[in-house]
Amino acid sequence: EVQLVESGGGLVQPGGSLRLSCAASGFTFSSYSMNWVRQAPGKGLEWVSYISSSSSTIYYADSVKGRFTISRDNAKNSLYLQMNSLRAEDTAVYYCARDSSVALGAFDIWGQGTMVTVSS
Amino acid sequence: AIRMTQSPSSLSASTGDRVTITCRASQGISSYLAWYQQKPGKAPKLLIYSASTLQTGVPSRFSGSGSGTDFTLTISCLQSEDFATYYCQQYYSYPPLTFGGGTKVEIK
Predict the structure, then answer these.
(1) String of DSSP letters for B14-50
(2) Cα B30 → chain centroid
(3) Distance of CA B99 to CAs A63, B23, B90, Å?
(4) Do A44 and B89 touch (CB under 8 A)?
(5) For the segment A9-37, what is each residue's pLDDT rounded down to a tens digit?
(6) Average pLDDT for chain A
(7) Number of H helices, E strands in chain B
C-alpha cells in the first residue's frame, strides 16, 4: 500500500524548534518530488515547501523562508522539515504530500498529518 | 504569486443535486489545475488534475472543465459521501504553489 506517515508534531514555545518526519512506503520514494503543506485550524491549505527527488531543487513559501529547512534521505525513504524560530502563526496540521508523476505540482498521495502547536 | 479564488465559499445542497464550484486564477494557468476533496479530520484527496482528468478511482460523477483563468468542478449527482470541502490548486507557476480558499458543501 502506498503510504505516507508523518510524525514529530507537538507543542512548542514561540521561538522554539521542531523537526517533522514523513516515512514513505509502498512506492519508489527516490523517484518522486515531495512537499509539505499545512493547514491552520479551521483554515485552508497552504503549501510550505518542495524538494525534488534528488534534493537538487528546493523551494519555500515566503512565510517560512529562512526559518524552515526541507530535506530527504532516499536511503531511509524519509522526508523531513526542520522548523526553527517558530511563531504562533505556524500552528497547523502539517501534511507531507507526493508530487504526481503525471501532473508535476499536483499532490496525489498525502499523509494523515501531524499537528504543530506554537504557544507559550 | 498566482491567486486562486473559489466561489461560493459554501453551499447547501441535497443528495441527488447537481453542484458546480468555480475557481478563478489571477492570471492564465493553461490547464495546470487540480481539485481536491477534504473531509473533516482527514487529509485532502486528489480528484482531478490537468483541469479535467479524473484521478484513478474517483467516481465519474465528478468532472472538471476550463482552461486559462476560469475553471469548474461539477458533481453531477451529489451523494452523501460527497459532503466535504473542495479546494482548487494551480501548479502552472511556482513557487509558490497556491490553493483556492475552499468551498464547503453542506447538507441542505
Answers:
(1) -TT--EEEEEEESS--TT-EEEEEE-TTS--EEEEET
(2) 16
(3) 15, 10, 7
(4) no
(5) 999 999 999 999 999 999 999 999 999 99
(6) 98
(7) 0, 11
CB B46 to CB A46 under 8 A?
no
Pairing of strands B19-25, A45-51: unpaired
User: Among A46, A59, A111, whose Cβ lies nearest the Cβ of B95?
Assistant: A59
Distance, C-alpha A113 to centroid of its chain: 9
**Angle subtended at Cα A104 by Cα B24 and Cα B99, rounded to the nearest 5 degrees:** 30
Question: Among B101, B103, B19, B87, which residue's Cα sits nearest to residue B49?
Answer: B87
Q: How many Å apart are CA B94 and CA A47, to the nearest integer?
A: 10
Q: Rounded to a whole number, what is the distance in angstroms from the first to the last CA of chain A?
A: 39
Report residue B65 as a C-alpha cell. Answer: 472543465
